[in-house]
Structure formats: C-alpha cells, structure tokens
Amino acid sequence: MLLKTRLTKKELGELIFEAIVTMGIMYFIYMGLVLIFNRVVQSPPDFLLNWNTLWELILFFDIALLRYRRFILITATIFAMLFTWWRLFRRYKQMQLRHVLDELHYVASGNFEHRIKANLSGNMNDVVHSINTLVESTVMAMEEERKIEQSKDELITNVSHDIRTPLTSIIGYLGLIEEGQYSSKEDLERYIHIAYTKSLQMKVLVDDLFEYTKVRQTSTPLTVKTVSLGNLLEQIAAEFELESTRKEMNIEVEMKTTPLMIEFDVDKMARVFNNLISNALKYGKDGNLIRIVAEKVGSEAIISVINNGKKIPQESLDELFNRFYRVEASRSQQTGGTGLGLAIAQSIISLHGGYIYAESNDQETKFVMHLPLKQTNT
Questions:
Q1: Averaged pLDDT, 322-339
Q2: Membrane-spanning residues where (predicted)?
Q3: Kind and range of the H or E element at 130?
Q4: What is the CA radius of gyration of the chain?
Q5: Burial class of residue 329 in the structure, from the number of CB atoms within 10 Å of its CB (0-12 exposed, 13-18 middle, 19+ buried)
Q6: Domain range holding 256?
C-alpha cells in the first residue's frame, strides 16, 4: 500500500483534532482582536487622543468594520481555513516522513528485500527513491561479497583436491623408496619417475593458479606494444608444429585483414593463444584441423580459434570459462590440465577491454575473441 493512503485511524484523529484546535484558536484570536479594537474605540487612551493621525486611522477602521462586517468576517474565515490547511499539510508531511523512517528502520533491521512504496511529491519522493536505490546497491554489494566468499571457498576446495591427488602419489612412492620396498633398480627408477611426473603436475597447477589470481586483479599492469597480429599468430602456430604433427592435426592462420596492427601485452596475449591452441589439440577429438582467423571490424580485432573436433554440449559452453571446469572429469588424468586455462584467458582478455565466448556445433567448435585495436588505459 502506498504511503499516501496509509494514515492510521489514530493519525486521522490527530489531523481532525489539529484542525479543530487551529480553527478554535483562529476564532478566539479574531474575536479577541475585535473586542480589543472596540474597547479602544469606546475608551481610547490619552496618547491616542493626542496622536491625531493614528486616532483618525482607528476611527476609519471602526467605521469600515461596522459597514463591511460581513465581508471582513468572510475574509477572516477564509484566512483561518487556509492557515488551518497549511498546518494540516505540514502535519501530514511529518506523518509521511515518520512512515518513511519507520520503513527505513524496518529495512535497517535486516529486511533488505523490503522496498519503500510511496506516491509522494517533491523532495520527499526523491528521498524515498534515493533510499530504495541505496538499499538495492547495498543488497547487490552484499550479494557480490557473498559470491566472492563462496568463490574463495570453492577455489580453496578445488585447489586442495587437485593438489592432494598427485601429492598422495608422491608421498606414497617416496615412502616405498624410503622404506626400501623395491625389488630392482627398474622399480626404483619407475617410482622416482612417477613421483617426478606428479611433482610436475603440481607445479603446473601452482603456476596456473598464481597466473589466474594475478590476472584477476584489475590493477594488474599491462606492458602494451603495437604488434602485427598476423606475424604473432604465425609464430605461435609454428611453435605447435611438432605437437600438431604428432596428433595428425594441421594449424592454419587466416588473416582477413592485412596488415592488422594491434596494441596489447604480447606476453599475456601469447598465453591466451597458447591456451586456446593447446585446448584444441588436447580436446578436439576426431578433428584434424585448427584454424586461427583474424579480421578488423571497426575499432576492434575479432580473432577466432576454430577446430573441427567433437562438439561441446550446450550446457557445458556456459561453464567453460569457470575455473577448474572440465567438460569431462577424466580429462584431468588424461591430459594433466588444471582447468584454469580458459579462466586465465578470459581474465587476460578482460584486462585488455575485450571479451571472449565459445560456440560449438557438429561441424566445428569456435572460441571468438573481441579485442580493441588500441588500449586507452595502460
């Protein structure tokens, strides 16, 4: 219910009582002034008789009062009504303010889902709107803080889980070596090799985690340079030639705009391209081609990393850029991935003022990046 119509019976009674009292006071003031004026005319003090001008003015008003008594009475009544309305309006505004304060206290007591619904005018309406806006901003900030805390808890849980598995293996095999529970040199070398491999997995996770937390900070500095995007992509593709040949996949770079000059942090963006190409090589099952397509559209560069491998389910596309997410749980064991690569890529692109998204169908899977050609905040 709107505040404009939410006056209680008690408050309505207060307004009626206020009106009666005000009208009564105005009536007594009017009658008192009339009586005093008549008394002065009938028994004037000596100083008025000696002050001819003032005495003549009083006599003039006395004659006017007798002649226009009805007009003066109507005028006084209208004035009394206007004055009464003004006092009632002020009291009504005070009651509305009291209602707003009561609702504000209700919200402040922890009922942040409540909003003050009011049909007011003037500054009061602005105040109510500002209060509702403040409450909404506070709720959003609290929700964001809750999500951050939950995100931190999930991060700790996921990191602990991903570190515990290789760490358990390392401790187990080193324990066998420490206790001499091996029958040959080959067994010893195998145990050492497994412990070393698991240690490398832990190092990759720690490095990725460090990189992820670093690029998530909006204050992370960027070392911006102007580079030829085509040359950089060709260089990165060449670095994967051996791995792509081993997996019988080809990597092609297609520049629709030549030359395409762009400003970004070369090292960080190279990490993005490396992550995307590595993912295409690891997870592009049944595919044989990776295409990197780049073009200039307006003031931005659009870069797509496309593979013709197995389709990614739609429900997974929305989760791809969440940290530690993997489309298949078994991928962690098969590839040694940390699940942080795409989250790192997204954060780096955001630092550059761009964005990334993924599309997938039966023919191809595409990761599309939009990057500004020039960096405004460096």
A1: 51
A2: 15-36, 71-89
A3: helix 123-178
A4: 41
A5: exposed
A6: 224-372
Tokens of 148: 């951050």
Residues 86 and 207 in one domain: no
Instruction: Classify residue 4 by its DSSP letter.
Output: G
Residue scoring higher pLDDT (334 or 341): 341
Cα–chain-centroid distance for residue 137? 9
DSSP structure class, residue 321: T
Cis peptide before 259 (omega within 30 of 0): yes
Model confidence pLDDT, tens digit, residues 191-209: 899 999 888 888 878 887 7
Contact 305, 278 (CB under 8 A): no
Which tens digits make up the pLDDT trace of 267-324?
889 989 988 998 888 877 777 889 999 999 989 999 999 988 888 877 777 677 765 5
- Do 173 and 303 reside in the same domain of the chain? no
- Environment class of residue 302 by beta-carbon count within 10 Å: exposed (0-12), middle (13-18) or buried (19+)? middle
Bridging pattern class, strands 300-307 and 250-255: unpaired
